[in-house]
Design a protein that fits this description.
Helices cover 30% and strands 25% of the residues. It has helices at 3-21, 34-39, 59-66, 129-136, 148-153, and strands at 41-48, 51-57, 76-83, 86-95, 112-117.
Length: 156
């Protein structure tokens, strides 16, 4: 098949390695301990098969969203992933002043950053946070939230 085919195969293999090697990176997202979660408002529950996801954020964030305002810096939106009767992992999106500057414009979600944690507070390095940003970019008109409608309707 010759050199061009070998070069193409090597390029595709390298591309595959790059895609599959992207994992979580340490960033500015803070782990929400149980005291933090207890102070937040549970605004939605999503069930996917054997997985139940509880969604939390602050009352301040819900009030801002329902008033049509931007969510304030410091807001955390937390997905608590429950399996077999206990917390399996937590997904946290956090907004902070200047957080967006940590990424190039093509992968920026305003000032939001994303992180997966294990219940002990350690970062779940098996998760691809670049993929999280990429997916949440599609929700720019909803403050980067997939549960925007649930939060907007909560308590109404």
């Amino acid at each position: 098949m010759g050199q061009p085919f070998a070069t193409l195969s090597a390029s595709l293999a390298l591309s595959g390695l790059l895609v599959f090697s992207a994992i979580a990176e340490p960033n500015r997202v803070r782990f929400p301990d149980s005291e933090t979660i207890d102070a937040l408002t549970h605004y939605s529950t999503v069930t996917r098969g054997d997985v139940t996801e509880y969604m939390y954020t602050s009352r301040e964030a819900l009030d801002a969203l329902q008033a049509g305002k931007e969510l304030p810096d410091g807001t955390q939106v937390i997905l608590q992933d429950w399996r077999e009767g206990s917390v399996y992992r937590l997904f946290v999106m956090e907004k902070g002043e200047g957080f967006g500057a940590d990424y190039d414009e093509r992968s920026r979600t305003d000032d939001w950053q994303f992180q997966w944690f294990w219940p002990d507070g350690s970062i779940n390095m098996d998760e691809n946070t670049e993929r999280c940003r990429s997916c949440h970019m599609s929700r720019q008109d909803r403050q980067y939230m997939f549960t925007y409608s649930d939060a907007w309707q909560f308590g109404k």
